[in-house]
Amino acid sequence: MNHRTMTEIEELELTPLTQPSLEMKESWVLKPTIAKKKKKFSVACISSNRKLLLWLGGVLCVSCIIAMTLSKTLPHDHHNVPPLTKDNSTIAIPVALKFFNAQISGKLPEGNNVSWRGDSCLNDGGSLYPNLAGGYYDAGGSIKSSFTMSFSMTMLSWSVIEYGSKYDVSGELNHVKGLIKWGTDYFLKTFSSSSDTISEMVSQIGMSGQSKIPNDNYCWMRPEDINYKRDFTVCHTNCPHLAAEMAAALASASIVFGDKVEYSATLVRSAKAIYSFAEAMSTKMKSSEHWDDLIWGGAWMYYATGDNTYLAKVTSPRFSGVPVPSRMALVMVSSLLLTRLRLFLSPPFPYEDMLKTFHEQTSIVMCSYLPYYTKFNRTKGGLILLNHGEPESLQYAANAAFLATLYSDYLDASVTPGWYCGPSFFKTQVLRDFSTSQVDYILGKNPQNISYVVGFGQKYPKHVHHRGASIPKNKKVTCEGGWKWKESSNENPNTIEGAMVAGPDKNDGFHDLRANYNYTQATLVGNSGLVAALVASSRGGGGLDRNGLFSAITPLSLSPDPET
């Protein structure tokens, strides 16, 4: 096949999809399970056939005697049937999740499985927000970013909604749900979550600038040892992207915790308030850079509530402009999330036009993942360079691996064998092959023969750029006193299991240096994408849950309005 540029692909008309039948669409909307009636036997019937029953009983007894005799005389095969071998993705799921346990801020929950961590930053907050302890540290330091934390929790929730049975089989369903709740509990502290309307929210704990020392960027110390006052940032008017992102996190988590009615309702109510705050700020801004966040948040609001008002907002012609290139990752997840709706339920006018646009955008991006096209380069080892050779390439590849598998599962579940890239038709298996290649690269199938996930495999990074992992647990250091640990060439005294580091350069080269975060730093966003990719590509469990995401949508809610 000749190589084609993405420009050529975008100029070609995508082949329209066959619309699913009404019966099929209604089968994808949750319905109550109807218990099967037990069959009853007639006593009269049994009595009239007593002779037959006695004869059958005699035959059964004779058969049992023969079977017992044979079991004692015939040779036995003592070889047990070997258990199913777990694939690497399944094995790596619990490892990757432990990274989030290592990033917990505040008073550690019971059963936290990271021995070298302790309670930390218990005094986060101020007069208006006295209790901001909790949440997660973003990367290798002690800063808590509401934006990256929100996106990470949403990705975890999405993976649970779609692949809950796979988490269950791996034994990690309760674990991942606990991690999500740790995040959402913290979010509810960052704004007036008891109000229906809000006017501000906390965007970050800890300062990264150099103007005020000590600060969380300047100091190299374990979070447990921080003894200086940590500032926090409150947003009032210019953070619609953050508010929409947090609305997505709360809305998606409300679906995950649908069995906890009161908590789920709290999450939905808070998500509505904070999404309204995002919209209010958006109307006062001329820039469109936050539109992708509004689409992402609005889509999750629709799935969490079933309210067509949100669907009307995200499919409004207002959002038909060209997306900002730097935010293509968020545009992609939004498009795929809404493509699911079109594939499974095919909403009619007035939603169809924009949903078709999202679907086409999804198809084009999936085409760009394939090696037949030259939108993105690859290393010689096979890693796709979605950030065009810039540092921290693995987090982009991990998220792409999740999205590719998810789209292939969407197509399969909607009885669609593949999709078109221009005139060329591709089966869904090529997306799974792509996803597998990226996950395998991350887990060790690369020119360095190193697993980029700490604690997985025999060889992995030992100098992760991480304050808590690099300083011995029993060493209490000052702000500047910890620098020697940052600059030390010794391996980290604490193993931060599950951390997917930033990864190699564009030539597959990797330097295990603590001081160079471009190679060795791990992040919440990267690891949430990794966990999602691992569970999607794992071979255990029952596959995609077609109905979970539609739990709030009623069969008639998408019907066209009757003519008046």
Automatic annotation (TrEMBL):
Pfam families: Glyco_hydro_9
EC class of the enzyme, as a word: hydrolase
Residues that span the membrane, as ranges: 52-70
Domain Glycoside hydrolase family as annotated: residue spans: 96-534
Gene Ontology molecular functions: cellulase activity
GO biological process: cellulose catabolic process
Protein name: Endoglucanase
Organism per entry: Brassica carinata
